[in-house]
């Protein structure tokens, strides 16, 4: 029999599974936003959001694999239907920023749990998510700032859509899920 320190504590396992569900939900939210953008003529925004949806799925897979490697029990969540109707790109990217701030807060809570439980391995693993969230929030804020500058200007929105379509969302290390 293996020593207890090789097994994941129940509190950690439950908290990580909650984050798995949040990453899956995030992927679906971005997928619904991408679909809306595509249907409304914003192909560049759609491509950006489809990439972002894939990135969130990779974040979920990293968590699942980590849980399983640590002898935990990864739970694949059911996903609720995300919002799929938006008034504008401004609404979409406002919602993205709010969602990313929420995810950051949830990751911070998860990190706090690992410190309380003295699970330094999981704490170390989660530092990647902490850094990733800094990038995600900064990108969301930058995009929101650009949309505020553009306002309802059709040419500005056209250029924004074109530019966003060529922007990379993922970190090169994401492919290591």
What do these coordinates show?
- The protein is mostly helical and 177 residues long.
- The protein has one domain: Ferritin (Up-down Bundle), CATH 1.20.1260.10.
- It has five helices and no strands.
- Helix 1 (10-39) packs antiparallel against helix 2 (43-69) and helix 1 (10-39) packs antiparallel against helix 3.
- It is elongated and about 55 Å long.
- The protein starts with 9 loop residues before the first helix and ends in a 12-residue tail after the last helix.
Task: Summarize the model shown.
By secondary structure, this protein is mainly α. It has helices spanning 10-39, 43-69, 89-116, 120-150, 154-165. The chain is elongated and about 55 Å long.
List keywords for this structure.
Ferritin; disordered C terminus; 177 residues; single chain; mainly alpha
* CATH H-tier superfamily: Ferritin, core subunit, four-helix bundle
Shape: elongated
CATH class: Mainly Alpha
What is the mean pLDDT? 92
Please count the helical segments.
5
Judged by helices, strands and strand pairing, the structural class is: mainly alpha
How far the N terminus sits from the C terminus, by CA atoms, comes to: 29 Å
Please provide the ordered H/E string of secondary-structure elements.
HHHHH
What is the multimeric organization of the chains shown?
single chain
Computed Rg: 18 Å
**CATH architecture group name:** Up-down Bundle
- What is the share of helical residues? over 70%
User: Which spans have pLDDT < 50 for at least 5 consecutive residues?
Assistant: 172-177
